[in-house]
Amino acid sequence: MLGGTAALAVGLLLAWALTYPQVAFGATVTRAAADVAAVVVLGLALVPMLDVPRYRDELARRSAAAMTVAAALWLVAEVARLFTAAAATAAVPLSTLGVRTTVEYAISTVAGRADLISVLAAALVGALTIWWRTPAAGVAVAGIAAIGTTARTLAGHLSENAFGGIAVTLHALAAAVWCGLLAALVLTVGHRGQWARVLPRFSALSLWCVVVLLVGGIGSAVVTLDAPTQLWSTGYGRLVLAKVLFTAALLGLAWHNRTDWLPSARGHRVTAATSSRRSYTELALMTVALTLAAALAVTG
């Protein structure tokens, strides 16, 4: 938890430094917190599918408590995001924002309706994790979390371009599955036999996630940026460049883990504690990249 908070803080400070004075810091904080929590929820809902059928119920039980906490954090962040966005749209201080203004924003604007969908998704996920803890609930939670994750993306700055909207949505979903599953593995897998079963499946799935992530990211960047010089002359471009660099570092680390850690884990030659520690560095880079993506969404 402390490591994740530190990585989130690093991402926020980097986003502020790259876009000052353009960045809306409060909106970036709430967007980043909501996105990270939603990603964790999605990963926890999907992680039982990485194990063999015999042990899926065990992983589902292990993920239940963490999913409840993550869903609660997601809901709080989404509500905060709704209020900060409503205040920014109405150009009034958050302290003087009224209920009527908030309702009008949530109902009358495309961005507000997207935020409201995300709030409802987080609330529904929270209810399901408390009252309906079955394998079928995990599938439902994954679907709802995916909807909540992509709602704002579909209503964002690329929503007016069909190709750009599809590209950034696929990019966001691929990143959410990849990052969320690794976080879920750290939170739920407790012994090296389990790592030996789930890590190869995660590695295979992550390859497809990376392909979709790269294609979607390149497509959305091409649509958004008019010229290569904007990569360093605008705050948005500098955020894109920073995200590319962190993603490249993440891909390098992931490939190293695939060629070194994966064979050892598959052969039961590495402890569960070592596997968890090796995941932390990758998760830290993922958190910074997700925070930069949140800043991109707010800045764009």
TrEMBL record:
One GO biological process term is: copper ion transport
An example of a Pfam family matching this protein is CopD
Q: Where in the cell is it found?
A: Cell membrane
Q: Which UniProt keywords apply?
A: Cell membrane, Membrane, Transmembrane, Transmembrane helix
- Output the Gene Ontology cellular-component terms: plasma membrane
What membrane topology does this protein have? Multi-pass membrane protein
Q: Which domain of life is it from?
A: Bacteria
Listed transmembrane segments? 36-52, 64-90, 110-132, 139-158, 170-190, 202-223, 235-258, 279-298
Main location (coarse class): membrane
Boundaries of every Copper resistance protein D domain copy: 196-296
Per the record's keyword annotation, is GTP-binding included, yes or no?
Answer: no
Q: What is this protein called?
A: CopD family protein
Organism, as annotated = Mycolicibacterium fluoranthenivorans
